[in-house]
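Journal club side-thread
Mid-discussion, someone asked how the predicted structure for our own chain would compare to the paper's figures. Pasting it here so we can look after the session.
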Amino acid sequence: MTFAKTVLAAALVAATPFAAQAQMRALSDPVVPHPDPESLFTSDDPVLHRNKQAALHIQRNLLKCNEWDRASEWLTDAYIQHNPVAASGLEGVLYYFTQIARRPVLDPCPALSAEDGNGVVAVQAEGDYVTILTRRIMPYADDPEGGSYTTTWFDTWRFVDGKADEHWDPATLPGAAPEAPGNTDTLLREARDRAAIEKLMWDYVRAIDSWNPDAYAAVFTEDGSFLDTTGRDNLRAMVAGMAEQRTDESPMLHHVMSNHNIEFINPNRAVVNYYWQTVSRGSPGAAAPQLLAQGWGRDVVVRINGRWLIQNRDVAPD
């Protein structure tokens, strides 16, 4: 796009905010991660090298592989936060990632890759500070089919004796921006996303009620988990094994989910809280249905390539 066209596009957005807010498309080149991101975390200076290696562990072992039981190796107890939705202190970080986000641990932990959704673009280190620039994939608010664009996120840490003691990033409070035409787009997007997530939950219960291993695995991410079972292949095998154990005398089941509450963490991640029941099927003139089990659950769902999928399903949260 020429400079003149860029200026014209910007002028049109300024002149027609209501229409352009829904139709605007990214004018920039896409953000491209480094082809060998882990090579960026080295330095000839021993102090900078130590700090960059600690930043590598935070990016890889904590943020990618979710090994939060190791967080104290690279974060201080104080861990001062400047992200408005995160409390300072190591305990607050651990609570968020283990109890709210509840992201499954990747074992073995793979190296950082240019294929990561938040792929590393660049790393800068000076004095006690390390900054990591990463790609961020954002959905278009007016595109229900999953159109997206890329922009750049940053995380900056100040290190003390090789551990991160203070952190900055560009996060803002949800809904903190003044009322503007764009907020309508956010409400519409969340309404569409709520409908899609409810459909995802319906697809889940239909897959397990029909004992369909392929349909069951398909509602999870590649690394998705149900309690201690992780990965689509293992989830598929789990349901196939359960189906094989059924006999002609085994009752047909209904897995009932109700009282859904969907909390959006960001545009591509949400937590679904609900009550669940497992009930044997009944009908007039036949055996009466029986309540076999009940409880409450908390699922983490994510949008990948425009489709909402279950990343972690926990039907027995603490």
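Post-session note: The longest helix spans residues 181-209.
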